[in-house]
Amino acid sequence: MLKNTHYDNFLQLNGIQHFMFCPRQWALIMIEQVWSENEDTTIGNLVHKLADDRYLEERRKNRIITRAVPIRSYELGLNGIIDVLEFWSSRTGIELKNSTGLWFPKVIEYKKGKPKKNLSDTLQLVAQIMCLEEMYSLEINSGEIYYKQINRRIRVELNETLRDEVRKTSKKMHELYVQGKTPHATVGKNCKRCSIKEMCQPRLTHHKRSVQNYINNQWEIINEKAIE
User: Fold this and answer.
1) Quick one: residue 96, left, alpha or beta (phi over 0 = left, psi -120 to 50 = alpha)?
2) Quick check: helix, strand or coil at residue 4?
3) What are the chain's domains?
4) What are the start-end ranges of the H helices in the chain?
5) How far is CA 25 from the centre of its chain?
6) Which of 4, 116, 198, 214 has the most CB atoms around it within 10 Å of its CB?
7) Is the C-alpha dihedral spanning 120, 126, 129, 134 positive or negative?
């Protein structure tokens, strides 16, 4: 288990998904303030817009559904918004304003696509839950991710491995942010789906060649052609 850390500054929690997708993409967005919309991001924004109505609260028998709930964690140095937060009537939990008894929270994260092979969605959900645990002094063992493409929720069970992975990822994000360092590109299949591919120029930046080396190489080519 990693030793707990206390950060004085906060980074955006949803950056975890960008970081897992590509650390360079995350750095370009967070450090260099670069962003561009594509079809994927536009659809994603629409899906979240349906969920993120902070003024809409539903009350049912033993459940209260809230939306666009702000969260933060000093341990992770992250803050953000939970798409949908359900509170279930329970013997353990917290008190809620204008409600009797105790209520236990369940996080529902909304995604436009389908379950991914990597842990990006899972770690984002786990980070949200860890924020709630810190804020409410609770232990929360599960949450759910709703995928629009398959129209169903996937349950995620928390364990210490996932929690440590969130801690490690947030630590790396903070280190890069403090250094103001944007990693070199790693060309791969993710590049085709990246909304900032044109600004990233992965094939031009993934080599660690200096500009001077590039210029020298071009002069060598020109000289060789001149000799011929």
Assistant:
1) beta
2) coil
3) 11-183 (3.90.320.10)
4) 15-21, 23-30, 39-51, 120-136, 160-179, 197-200, 202-205, 211-227
5) 12
6) 116
7) negative
